[in-house]
Design goal:
Lambda_DNA-bd_dom_sf; Cro/C1-type_HTH
């Protein structure tokens, strides 16, 4: 298991079963067992589970520094700042941010993955992606994936 190793380790460490996850996500236990067998599921399911148990689920890409020589840099920054609120509320904010930091277009990403541009746009439109692609993107782009659960901070 490679893609969902973080989830199986978390389940083992905290004592969660496939039934616990299934109840939190609203699926049957067999569906969650299948995730572990095929080593893949959608990001939205893991986020829904983490919210149900009171944790934050965080993913980020560590990307190499890239010089930001863009002709339309002022326009890009203005657009980025204008949409920052909705941008960071997205489940795929980590991917959008990594693409923005590395000046990578959807077309360039799709080409590296051997997919069509519409596949990448579909992930961003639906705001969901399978873990298989999270790791394939990291491998193709030579990025590092950081995935972890964190207890939510209690408001005082």
């Amino acid at each position: 298991m490679k893609n969902l190793n973080f989830l199986s380790e978390f389940m083992e460490k905290c004592g969660y079963s496939t039934g616990d996850i299934a109840r939190a996500v609203g699926l049957q236990r067999q569906a969650v067992t299948r995730w572990l067998v095929v080593d893949d599921t959608k990001l939205s399911y893991v986020i829904k589970f983490s919210e149900a148990i009171g944790c934050d689920f965080l993913i980020s890409y560590e990307v190499p520094e890239v010089s930001q020589e863009r002709t339309n840099m002022a326009i890009d920054k203005a657009l980025f700042n204008k949409t920052i609120q909705g941008f960071m509320d997205s489940r795929l904010a980590f991917l959008r941010l990594a693409l923005w930091k590395t000046n990578t277009t959807y077309t360039a990403l799709a080409d590296k993955l051997g997919l069509s541009r519409s596949s990448v746009q579909n992930w961003l439109m639906k705001d969901d992606i399978s873990f298989r692609y999270i790791y394939l993107i990291a491998e193709a782009m030579d990025w590092t994936v950081d995935i972890y659960f964190r207890a939510k901070e209690k408001a005082e």
